[in-house]
């Protein structure tokens, strides 16, 4: 559609609409929707002719027609982006147009659409009264609306609508950005984060879910230079393919984004550029139906800044978690260094603890305790369960036979010692950490569900859940593997022993979760080898 305006012709108002297709929505630019509401077909015809060829900011008009207030209301419910309504007053009733105004503003809660009242009977709707009592934006008699004045009224109304929409988009967009950034701060994996970014862009622009998020691997290090982290919608087929070779045009634009280090809006190839402080660079492609306007581009720039900060937070979180995990592994290695018979015991305990916790989550056991934090940390924390053995004398720790009562009492001190050491360190870290969970496990994994364990003779759920899980895992692993004082047990005998102590030594729900893993052959590691 041309952006030129046809010369106004006062006589056009009386012409028939000989070309029903004179006004078409552009395939490239989203049209301004104008709704003509009038019960006289000649008014529709004349209005279409008068507005034929008009465009505003390179966007054409799309003219919609309704012949009653009720029909117009249904059309407004179907089209929430109508910019202007040219509304007659007298239609199926003497005040049908005025009633529609109230329904638009109150029932539809639409305060942005511009409403121009056009009446052929001004005596039935006095201008002053209507302007004061109804939320309309202009009042015209049909006799005064020449082609030129109709053009002026239309452009002025579209300009006002555009300003209203821009303000509302800014308000809603900024609110969504703040909300989305907050959500992204809660995500703890890069691919989960990438998928979250695609979802938030879709919500921010109110568009479909088609999108791709890529990261540029500058030094490669065995990885592709352009690595796809997340896909959605029509691009999901690329998840298995792993590269953009089947989308050469899109790949070219994304590489241009990385080269120029800026977002590029070349509809339909809109690509955002996001850089982080640790020199990682991301590109996000999405597919709006229409070219983005200035407000949307500005909002996306703000969004990119928030995403960059959220990614930096994710990176720092992973660095902190890695440092904590390295500390935990070092402490576990220290404990194992003297206890040479346990071998890979702690690593097996870690994997089985994670598996049981996930199984209990699926079974909805203790849902109030199965937090994301707990599930992320309990396995790693479990490898600290015997950290207190660093204080156990060698002649007791390494004794090949059974311990006498005095030696047993000294050996049992490792639970309290481990809990104390880790609890003291955990005080330096706010909230739940590997150290705080490790302290619970070290101090509680020899407690019995019936209260007859040690060191505190805790009963039932007074024993931390982490410790109740590791209590089962520790015994299962010890029985299934060779020790200096025993040969490995068969799986059937081990499970019979553990099930026989459900409710006395062990939490029955933990035993049930382990039994399911065994019965369904889903143990995470091989035991007894």
UniProtKB/TrEMBL annotation:
<feature type="domain" description="Response regulatory">
    <location>
        <begin position="33"/>
        <end position="157"/>
    </location>
</feature>
<dbReference type="InterPro" id="IPR001789">
    <property type="entry name" value="Sig_transdc_resp-reg_receiver"/>
</dbReference>
<protein>
    <submittedName>
        <fullName>Phosphodiesterase</fullName>
    </submittedName>
</protein>
<feature type="modified residue" description="4-aspartylphosphate">
    <location>
        <position position="88"/>
    </location>
</feature>
<keyword id="KW-0597">Phosphoprotein</keyword>
<dbReference type="Pfam" id="PF13487">
    <property type="entry name" value="HD_5"/>
</dbReference>
<dbReference type="GO" id="GO:0008081">
    <property type="term" value="F:phosphoric diester hydrolase activity"/>
</dbReference>
<dbReference type="InterPro" id="IPR003607">
    <property type="entry name" value="HD/PDEase_dom"/>
</dbReference>
<dbReference type="Pfam" id="PF00072">
    <property type="entry name" value="Response_reg"/>
</dbReference>
<dbReference type="InterPro" id="IPR011006">
    <property type="entry name" value="CheY-like_superfamily"/>
</dbReference>
<dbReference type="InterPro" id="IPR021800">
    <property type="entry name" value="DUF3369"/>
</dbReference>
<dbReference type="InterPro" id="IPR052020">
    <property type="entry name" value="Cyclic_di-GMP/3'3'-cGAMP_PDE"/>
</dbReference>
<dbReference type="Pfam" id="PF11849">
    <property type="entry name" value="DUF3369"/>
</dbReference>
<dbReference type="GO" id="GO:0000160">
    <property type="term" value="P:phosphorelay signal transduction system"/>
</dbReference>
<feature type="domain" description="HD-GYP">
    <location>
        <begin position="320"/>
        <end position="529"/>
    </location>
</feature>
<dbReference type="InterPro" id="IPR037522">
    <property type="entry name" value="HD_GYP_dom"/>
</dbReference>
């Amino acid at each position: 559609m041309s952006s030129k305006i046809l010369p106004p012709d006062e006589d056009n108002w009386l012409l028939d609409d000989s070309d029903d297709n004179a006004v078409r929505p552009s395939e490239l630019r989203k049209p301004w929707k104008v709704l003509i509401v009038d019960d006289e077909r000649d008014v529709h015809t004349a209005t279409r002719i008068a507005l034929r060829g008009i465009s505003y900011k390179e966007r054409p008009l799309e003219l919609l027609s309704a012949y009653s207030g009720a029909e117009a209301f249904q059309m407004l419910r179907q089209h929430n982006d109508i910019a202007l309504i040219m509304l007659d007053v007298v239609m199926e009733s003497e005040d049908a147009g005025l009633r529609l105004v109230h329904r638009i503003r109150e029932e539809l809660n639409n305060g942005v659409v511009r409403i121009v009242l056009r009446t052929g009977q001004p005596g039935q709707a006095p201008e002053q009264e209507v302007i004061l009592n109804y939320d309309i934006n202009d009042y015209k008699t049909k006799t005064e609306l020449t082609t030129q004045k109709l053009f002026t009224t239309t452009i002025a109304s579209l300009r006002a609508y555009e300003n209203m929409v821009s303000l509302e988009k800014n308000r809603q967009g900024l609110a969504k950005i703040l909300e989305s950034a907050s959500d992204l701060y809660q995500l703890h994996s890069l691919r989960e984060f990438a998928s979250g970014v695609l979802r938030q862009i879709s919500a921010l622009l109110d568009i479909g879910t088609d999108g791709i998020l890529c990261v540029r691997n500058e030094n490669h290090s065995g990885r592709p230079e352009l690595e796809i982290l997340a896909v959605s919608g029509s691009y999901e087929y690329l998840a298995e393919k792993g590269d953009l070779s089947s989308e050469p045009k899109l790949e070219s634009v994304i590489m241009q984004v990385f080269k120029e280090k800026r977002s590029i809006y070349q509809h339909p190839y809109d690509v955002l550029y996001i850089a982080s402080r640790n020199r990682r660079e991301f590109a996000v492609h999405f597919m709006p139906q229409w070219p983005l306007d200035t407000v949307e581009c500005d909002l996306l720039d703000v969004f990119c800044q928030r995403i960059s900060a959220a990614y930096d937070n994710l990176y720092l979180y992973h660095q902190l978690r890695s440092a904590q995990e390295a500390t935990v592994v070092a402490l576990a290695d220290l404990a194992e260094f003297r206890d040479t018979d346990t071998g890979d015991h702690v690593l097996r305990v870690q994997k089985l603890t994670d598996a049981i916790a996930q199984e209990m989550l699926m079974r909805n056991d203790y849902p109030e305790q199965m937090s994301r934090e707990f599930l992320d940390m309990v396995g790693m924390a479990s490898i600290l369960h015997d950290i207190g053995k660093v204080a156990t004398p060698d002649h007791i720790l390494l004794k090949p036979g059974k311990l006498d009562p005095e030696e047993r009492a000294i050996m049992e001190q490792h639970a309290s010692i481990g809990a104390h050491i880790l609890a003291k360190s955990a005080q330096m870290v706010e909230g739940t950490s590997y150290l705080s969970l490790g302290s619970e496990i070290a101090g509680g994994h020899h407690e019995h569900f019936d209260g007859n364990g040690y060191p505190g003779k805790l009963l039932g759920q007074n024993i931390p859940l982490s410790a109740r899980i590791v209590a089962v895992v520790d015994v299962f692993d010890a029985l299934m593997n060779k020790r200096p004082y025993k040969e490995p047990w068969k799986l059937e005998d081990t499970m019979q022993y553990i099930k026989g102590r459900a409710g006395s030594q062990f939490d029955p729900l933990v035993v049930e979760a382990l039994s399911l893993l065994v019965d369904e052959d889903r143990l995470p590691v091989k035991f007894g080898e």
